From TrEMBL:
Superkingdom field: Eukaryota
Record-given protein name: Uncharacterized protein
């Protein structure tokens, strides 16, 4: 694993949205929430990934390859992609508030902090 591609976790993973792709789901998905920064250090980015859950026995993930541990480097599979929201020198004072929107018609995702 290339150490330049990872950094210590400051938070446990948080599920920010559940998007059903069934035909009867036509409404956009909009959520808001926050996650606590439990680790030590400066938060300079947030990683976003998808868990594709087909049924109880089949899940494909682009997330970490091992459980996330606070203050330890996150282990990623170098052959899958995650979204990364870079942070520009903001003081979050222990937590980060976010909004998430998924437009079903266009497929566009918007994540803001």
């Amino acid at each position: 694993m290339n150490e330049l591609l990872t950094s210590p976790a400051l938070s446990q993973p948080v599920a920010i949205a559940k998007v059903g792709l069934e035909k009867h789901d036509i409404d956009d998905v909009c959520t808001a929430g926050n996650f606590n920064l439990e680790g030590k250090g400066t938060c300079n980015a947030v990683a976003l990934w998808v868990d594709w859950i087909f049924d109880e026995t089949c899940t494909i993930t682009t997330g970490p390859t091992a459980p996330v541990e606070i203050n330890k480097n996150v282990k990623w599979d170098m052959h899958v992609r995650q979204g990364v929201q870079l942070i520009n020198n903001r003081d979050f004072q222990g937590h980060i508030d976010y909004t998430f929107n998924f437009n079903r018609k266009t497929g566009q995702v918007c994540f803001k902090m």
